[in-house]
Structure formats: structure tokens, C-alpha cells
Amino acid sequence: MLRFKELTITMFDITPHLTKWYAIISYAALVYAISTFIKIKLFVRKNGCKEPIKLLDCGPLSIPLLVKMLRMKSEGTFLDYAESLFVNLATSTFYLRLCGVRVILTKDPENTKAILATQFNDFALGVRHKHFLPLLGDGIFTLDGEGWKQSRTMLRPQFAREQVAHVQSLEPHLQVFAQHIRNAKGDTIDLQNLFFKLTVDTATEFLFGESVHSLVDDSVTSTFAIEQWEGKDKFAESFNVAQAYLSSRAYSQMFYFLINPKEFRESCKDVHLFAKHYVNKALAATPEELEAKSKGGYIFLYELVKQTRNPKMLQDQLLNIMIAGRDTTAGLLSFTFFELARNPEIAAKLRAEILQHFGEGTPEDIPSITFESLKKCEYLKWVLNEALRLYPSVPVNFRVATKTTTLPRGGGKDGNSPVYVGKGTTVAYAVYATHRDPEYYGKDADVFRPERWEDAKRLGWAYVPFNGGPRICLGQQFALTEASYIIVRLLQMFPVLESKDDRPYPPRKSVQLTMCHQDGIFVLMT
Questions:
Q1: Which residue, of 96, 249, 259, 512, is most buried by count of CB atoms within 10 Å of its CB?
Q2: d(CA 122, CA 114)
């Protein structure tokens, strides 16, 4: 053991060496910083880049702004606040610094096109995989690169036209749905709550081969054979809770790891237990048994089992598709009926077209409602287009630059110059703001007016309710067909639709992984 005097001498001996290495490291860091600065300047000059407008007054490290945004998200006002930033700054693209990290926000369709299509390989999901991993694992919505390509190849056949066309499988669930409306006997109902139960029932049947039958309770009668098992009743609520936390993790970007409470972890565990129940049943069945079970209709899980027997892969892909199959359709239906109830002349026009195409909804009329006949119902398509324009299912999305690149527009005072995007920069594209931009939709861009689609010019990337490019939504036709069938049948069965909502307009919107009405859709239907 060194005595104090010896230790002191030893420290003095190594001090010059430490000083020398410190100088070398400092010099190397300085050289690297200067060379990086020069590279950026040369890149900017070569590509004609100019700075976009910077969002100021964000507070220290922009943390107060982040806290404000998360609070607005919980209050349902975040999207309208974000849209107002573009309006107040009089720009389609701006940036801010979050803890020193540059984040670019844009509503310019040309930039959206670049991110999703023409410069697809310059951008990736970034840390989304870490954001969503606890619930969704390694699925089509969380993976990049080869993992994403393999997922898309596996899932694409499941959304072929013949699968989408089986709309009559919705009818038994819709009959239970209708019982809840009739049981209200003209009193106000929350239609969104019923839509979420309906779509979870139809989605679980399509995906797992067995519905959770969340619409069935003591107030209704049904012919469904309902199986009860531990953990089943927790699924719907746990799925909602887990998604809310995932959304906050995504908006928190690099601080996602701070959002990991016990409630979130327990909810993820409940959802996984639910999915594993069906995955294990499918894996335990023989090919002959699976074939026999599929005779009553197409079952997503049973087809996936033919491609992989990896239980984790099956579970993750099913939960990824569950979000798309349940939440987007429920949100679309809710906002559509919210606007129809507020605009009785539009509802009357739509119902008249439905009766003309499909009749009054007698048992003899129902078989005429098919994938092909729904696509020919023009005004119905306009109504859905308009609902998706004002209320896109994923109103804000983001990508992270995988290399130093550019956005085609947004720089300079006029916003027409390219924008420098450094490797690792987060770029958020605000579909909600794009869809409400008067430049593309006129002065009444905030008004629900389906007729605008009659003579709509080619909007291109100014209308992207289902994303675009290589990652365009696989289930687009599936969601539109399901929503169309449900709208047709409900307007056949219930000629009276009245709004019972006196809250201020525009409505507060809940933004989780997808968007829905913050407080519910309160209507009267008879």
C-alpha cells in the first residue's frame, strides 16, 4: 500500500501525461467540430438550403413547451394549438430545439411526399420502436428496414380483395349494436362508446376467429356462444390505457423512458395475456382443425399460422393490426356521425342515396350491400372523404433522418427554398393541419362539406388520410368498406339522427396512437 507521500509523488508524475492527453482529445474534438461545421456549410450551399422559421419563446430547453403540449393533449386541444402555430407563424414549415435537439414540423404536401415517398430511404421511424415496444413488440408499425419489409410481405395477402369483401359478417354484431340504440328509447346515447365496442368485437373475430363480444350485456339478447376465460374482460380497457401511455411516450421523444408507470406495465401484460390465449389455441390446432374453423369465414390468425409458428411474431403482428382494425374505424365512424348529426341536410341527402341504392334494409335488401355496390355509392364516399379530411386517423406523424438530407420546401422568408435536415433530426408532418389548409381546400376548409369532393382538383399529397408511399396503409379498403357498411345499415334502421351536443365547436380531440372524439358523440337515434 502506498503511503500518502508516495501517492502524492505518483499523482504528480502522471499529471503531465493527463494534461497531454486532455490537450490531444480537446484538439481532436475541435477539429471534428470545425470539419463538421464546414461539411454542413458546404452541403447547405450545394443544395441551396435556407433556414425555416424558428419557434421562439419555448422556455428553457423547450421543456415548458413539451409540458404544455402534453397538457393540451390530455385536454383534447393539442391539434388545434399545433395548427394555430402554422397560422400564427404564417409558414408551412418551422423548427424548434428540444433540449438542444433540432425538431422540424411541416404541413407542406411536398415535404410529406419527400418523407413518405420520393426520399423514403432518407427517413426511418427512429426511436418509435422503443416508444411502442412494451405493447406492440416487433410488428409492422414499429419496425424499419428488413423487419418491416418481411412484416409487410407477410401481411399483404391478408388484405386481398376477397378478404375485404365479406361485409355481411358484420351484420350479427350490428344487430346487437342496434339493440342498445333501441333500448335508449329516444334518450341520448354516446355513439362513440358503442362504436369502439362494435369495432373491437368485429376486429377480434376477424383477427382471432373469436369475438370478445363486448357489446353483449344483460340489456340485450344474442345468439352468440360466448366463451369466458381469465383475462378476457380486462382486454378492452387495458388496451385503451396502454395506448394512451404509448402516445405520451411518442410525443415525449427522447424522454419516453420517463413514462413507464405500473399501470402501463400491467395494462401491457393484460393485453399480451389476451393475445397469447388465441395464439396458443391456433398453434395447438392441427391444419385440418384450422381449416374446419375457417369455413365460416376468413380468420387472420389462422392464415398467419400457415406462414410462421413463432408465437411472439404472431402476437406482435396481431396487436399491430388490432390498432388499425379497431381504433381507426371507430374514430372514423364517430366523427362521421358527429358531423351528420350536426348537419341534418347532409344526413338526409346521404340517407336518400342509401335508400336508392340499397333499399329500406329488409332482410331481402341486405345481400345487395357488397364491396362492389358500396364503392358505387358516390355521396357516401364523399362523406367519408370529408370526415377523413377533417379528422384523419393519424393526425400527426414523424420520421427521423437516417442521413444528412433535405426537405424540398420551407426554407427562407418565402418558404420556397430547401431545408437542411441533419442525420438524426426528427421531422414531424402534420396531416391535420395540411387537411385544413385553405390553400388546398378553400376558405371554408374548416367546414364539413362533402360536396367539395364532387369537383375536387387533384390534391395529391395534400390529402393523405392513410399515409402514402411504401408504408401506405394496407388496411385502407378494409376500413372504408367496414365503415361504409355500418353507415348504410344504421341509416336504414334509424331514420332519425339528432345531435344532443351543445359543447363548443370544433370538438376536443383525443390523440393517442389514433384520433377520436375526446368526450364522446352524444346523439338521439330512433
A1: 249
A2: 9
**In 3D, which of 285, 237, 287 has the Cα closest to residue 263?**
237
| CA 40, 43, 44, 49 torsion-angle sign | negative
CB count within 10 Å of CB 67 equals 11
C-alpha cell at 233: 374482460
Over the stretch 203-240, which tens digit does the pLDDT of each residue have? Answer: 888 888 888 899 999 899 887 877 777 778 888 889 98
What's the pLDDT band for 385 if we cut at 50, 70, 90? very high
* pTM listed for this prediction: 0.90
Phi, psi dihedrals of residue 426, rounded to the nearest 5° = -85, 130
Instruction: Please name each of the domains of the chain with its CATH number.
Output: 53-525 (1.10.630.10)
Q: Under the phi-then-psi rule, with left for phi > 0, alpha for psi from -120 to 50, and beta for the rest, what region is 99?
A: left
Task: Say how far apart CA 506 and CA 483 lie, in whole Å.
Answer: 23
333-359 as b/e: b if 16+ CB within 10 A: bbbbbbbbbbbeebbebbbebbbebbe
Backbone angles phi, psi at 468, to 5 degrees: -170, 180
Query: Which residues does residue 189 pair with via DSSP β-bridges, in sequence order?
Result: 523
pLDDT of 50 > 80? The answer is: yes
d(CA 99, CA 468): 31
> Alpha-carbon distance 250 to 248, whole Å?
5
Which H, E and C letters describe 416-480, residue by residue?
CEEEEECCCCEEEEEHHHHHCCHHHHCCCCCCCCHHHHCCCCCCHHHCCECECHHHCCCCHHHHH
**Average of per-residue pLDDT across 427-434:** 97
